[in-house]
Design brief:
Distance between the termini: 38 Å
Order of helices and strands: HHEHEHEEHEHHEHHHE
Number of helices: 10
Number of domains: 1
Structural class: alpha/beta
Strand order of the largest sheet: 3-2-1-4-5-7-6
Shape: globular
Largest sheet: 7 strands, mixed
């Protein structure tokens, strides 16, 4: 289980955290300090970016792989109502317990993203927001997504991709160790864009859109990687600071990707 999830769940239950377990998105640099309200709004904006890229509309059948505690599931139901099947997938029962469930029109599956208990061709969209880097194999997940999507369906990712080419060997090894310790499983912190595109194409997808939004996520670190420990609002401070340093130095990129399964 992800080591940082327990404290985040506790913070959510205490009303100190939102139902989104991911970074935020800013159209422009914030003016002044990032407040808790700013942070929640920015996290919701990143979810909106993913949903817009997914071209969602009422009646589509959608799965959220690595659904966290249900923030994206709730956003979908609020915007498009109960038309269409909505599935949340997570291997962690603690997180699933906080997700919207059947009463809200959401089916919850405790499952591994590399072994989806879904029939072939049953979905129009698969969303995966800031979770694929945890999976044992991105390519294996992409193959599963291709299997469960209908022809023409979309897989939409918010993912963290590495580029260690500019790092000294010691920095590369130290950063990877901290990321794996605080945010693991993270099988390959240095998986790059070319590798992900290759894996998507090997699974049968065509990449339709790929956007680097790293700069628009950086203000997140005022909250998750603050300068002083007294400001800590995140349980994995060392890992968050490593992420901040890597992103600010071009060694870790935040990308949004839309990939389409071919039409029949």
């Amino acid at each position: 289980m992800l080591p940082y999830i327990g404290p985040l769940i506790q913070a959510y239950r205490q009303g100190l955290a939102s139902d989104h377990i991911h970074l935020g998105y800013w159209e422009a640099p914030p003016q002044g300090a990032v407040t808790p309200a700013d942070w929640r709004e920015a996290q919701a904006r990143l979810t909106d970016q993913i949903l817009t890229m997914a071209d969602l509309r009422a009646g589509l059948d959608v799965a959220d792989a690595g659904c966290g505690i249900g923030g994206t599931l709730r956003a979908i139901r609020r915007r498009w109502g109960n038309a269409g099947r909505l599935v949340g997938i997570n291997p962690d029962p603690r997180q699933l317990a906080l997700c919207p469930g059947p009463a809200e029109g959401v089916a919850l599956l405790r499952a591994d993203a590399l072994d989806l208990p879904l029939s072939d061709g049953c979905l129009d969209r698969v969303i995966c927001l800031e979770a694929a880097f945890h999976f044992a194999s991105r390519r294996g997940f992409f193959q599963q997504a291709a299997r469960v999507l209908r022809p023409g369906g979309l897989l939409v990712l918010g993912d963290l991709l590495g580029d260690a080419s500019g790092l000294a060997e010691a920095d590369r090894m130290c950063a990877a160790a901290v990321l794996v310790r605080d945010f693991g499983p993270w099988p390959d912190p240095w998986q790059d864009e070319a590798g992900v595109v290759t894996d998507l194409e090997a699974a049968g997808f065509a990449v339709r859109d790929l956007r680097d939004i790293t700069a628009r996520t950086l203000p997140s670190y005022e909250v998750v990687a603050p300068a002083s420990v007294s400001d800590l609002r995140h349980p994995a401070l060392d890992g968050a600071r490593a992420m901040r340093w890597l992103q600010e130095n071009g060694a870790l990129r935040y990308v949004l990707i839309a990939a389409q399964k071919p039409e029949a």
